[in-house]
Here is the input.
Amino acid sequence: MSSMLQFLYIVAFTILALLAMANLIRNLLTLGIEAQRNYGQPRSPMPSVSHPELLDSHGDVIDEPLLVMRSLSVDDARAQLDALYDESPGYGDESRGEV
Here is the structure.
């Protein structure tokens, strides 16, 4: 009885494995066909903007960087972090015994 059950498990998992492999091959072929189809189409010079933050008040595309970062030296960054730490609510709290 148990050998029959083991045989059924082997057959079931073999069928599932074959279905999975067939699905994988079909998806790879579809992906290849789609890639070739979209590759031949010329791209438009101006991509469509789908996010409102990329537009100004007139609806034109913003052509400037949205985030500008200046470089800091290690000493400047440490001074800013020390200042934030000194201004934190728990710093120098005498009631907790910390300084």
About this structure: Helices lie at 2-39, 74-87.
